[in-house]
Amino acid sequence: MTEYTLRGQVAIVGVAESALGKTPDRTVLSLQQEAALGALDDAGLALSDVDGLFVSGYQYAERPAVLTAEYLGIQPRYLESTNLGGSGFVAAVERAGAAIAAGLCETVLICYGSTQYSSRTRALGGRPPEWSYQFEVPHGPALPLSAYALAATRHMYLYGTTSEQLAEVAVAARQWAMRNPKALRRAPLTVDEVLASPLISSPLRGLDCCLVTDGGGAVVVTSAERARTLRRQPVYLLGSGIATTHEAITNMPELTETPARASGALAFARAGVRPHEVDVVEVYDSFTITVVLTLEDLGFCRTGEGGAFVSGGRIAPDGDFPLNTSGGGLSYTHPGMFGIFLLIEAVRQLRSDCGERQVANARTALCHGTGGQLSTAATVILGREA
After folding, report:
1. N or C end: fewer C-beta atoms under 10 angstroms in the chain?
2. Residue 332 designated active-site
């Protein structure tokens, strides 16, 4: 196996969101375009500079990158449409870096858009149950929610995790969102209010679940050499990892052990960074249990201690563990897949662009995406210095 060579060789140089929330007058492509143009402008680049394009999503065409390239009026020499679910855009940073390092392209635009709210659907592309869910769909689960509910039930059984502890994840996210003017939900939230929200799939309640919104996001990745000549401070890729253990939840080896164990271990080893050296953590919060499982598997706390770790305001703005500083998918936005927004927030934190929610002296950030039914994992570690 060849040695990992991406550390400090590529950098994120531009990020942006489109309009978020409710956008009934917009399309998936127009949301992507808005985010893409914003990210390129952030970097001081133009569409003509893009020679690599990474696009994926569920509300899409058979060849999403080809369609998006046509819409944007560009003819990139490298295209990617791999769909890993919510981890996909975090994973795309590694793949973009590899393509750049191999000389296949120099400037990669990663973009995403969804009109999930306006389309009034959370359908995952109409995949038939015989593909993988033949042992689940006949029993009527609300997927993917019920899969995460199974993991939550198992974690509670094994380790004594409580609904109150899960609720603290949602409360902390809301406290961060109150400092983010772009967040959809900014009203104060209490643990009691989370516990009083409707039970959706036991033990998860309505406020344990991410938002359903419209929106798009974009990230621009280029070589470290070129990044140093551009408008904004580069944010360097230090380490990354991608992993999977299953597709359907019935095939998950252990309900409380996610592929984040493997992807996180790879990212930390390749970056030469340890968990306690990370200043800002952005992890996928599709559901409150996702956060608890992810923090354990990434090594920020021991297995079974995630519920206690997120309690007592530790992950809130005044706590000692800055987590999901945008408000996350629970309170900021969640247009189908949230991974690209993890990257956007991490870059802004490392650039000190976050105003009231800025984490002081943030120099290293971790982003972790979770896809499917705890099926896929992608972790990247980013730094202000190469």
Report:
1. N
2. yes
Question: What's the mean pLDDT in 335-348?
Answer: 97
In a domain, residue 71? The reply is yes
**Residues 6+ away with beta carbon under 8 Å from 175:** 189, 316, 317
Could you tell me what percentage of the chain is helix, strand and coil, using 3-state DSSP and rounding each to the nearest 5?
40, 20, 45
In total, how many domains does the chain have? 1
Q: How many CA atoms lie within 13 Å of 274's alpha carbon, on the beta-carbon side?
A: 2
Catalytic annotation present for 159: no
In a domain, 190, yes or no: no
pTM above 0.90, yes or no: yes
5 within a domain of the structure (yes/no) = no
The active-site residue out of 60, 78, 133, 332 is 332
Query: What CATH number does the domain containing 340 carry?
Result: 3.40.47.10
Could you list the residue range(s) of the whole structural domain that residue 52 is in?
10-120+210-383
Query: How confident is the model at residue 122, as a pLDDT?
Result: 54
Confidence (pLDDT) at 124: 45
Catalytic residue among 58, 60, 117, 284, which? 284
pLDDT tens-digit readout, 28-72: 999 999 999 999 999 999 999 999 999 987 666 789 999 999 999
